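Lecture 7 notes: from sequence to structure.

We start with a single chain of 278 residues. Read the sequence below before looking at the structure.
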Amino acid sequence: MTSEAEQDEAPEVVDESAEEAGAEETADRPVEAVEAEAVEAGAVAVDADEPVFVRARTPELPDDADISILDPEVKQELRGLPKGLAEIVGRHLAAAGMLIDSEPELALEHARYARQKAARVAVVREAAGLAAYHAGEWAEALSELRTARRMSHGTGHVAVMADCERALGRPERAIELAREAQVSLLSPEEAVELRIVAAGARRDMGQLDAAVVALQGDDLDAKRREPWSARLFYAYADNLAAAGRTEEAVKWFLNAAQADDDNETDAAERAFDLSPQD
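Now the structure, written as tokens:
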């Protein structure tokens, strides 16, 4: 349930976009200026490159959405807010985290509300971007993650951003992001994920052999058992299959199945489907 303080601060819910509410007035102004005003008004971006916005509604908080379940780094950033506001924002971020896998659209509503209340906190923009990504709102996710990266001066979720570019039909931008990324600053898992996305972008462009090569490296070793090994092996096998290298694909699907302790992939089934049947 929402608190009285939160109800008092709840924004009016509107359905129309900024295009319907004075887009002509913003047409000749810088995107950054339009975005800043929209953020202050509680809007969320619906296009990664154009100043088009819609307002966020106020979702009801689950009883167990408590700020205490947030990561210490998130709570630390929220300490810069007034105490009451930090509590409200933290609870909505907690709700977003709880719901992001099971109800991504509802998680996004909570993240949008947190963003509306604390748009100048980088971790809030990051959470909004990740929630939008899980909900399939690619343009919004990209816009939020770009902003979070500018605010934090960090590496950002570059693999997620690149995947958003792919989903928006812009694989060349995904490849550009991968090229520009400071890979040495990424965690091993993030670096592998970025390679997988870049390989997918190559495949989107019909560059099948290049997609296979993009995944090769020292960590593409069937004997290794890292948290990301199954996903890397699976992506490599999938691209080998797309390139018509079926025998190799079967081998790597089997490697992926052996590394997949949590049964998160259908690697064994893919290997069976590609194998010659008697």
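The beta strands are 43-45, 53-55. Keep this in mind for problem set 3.
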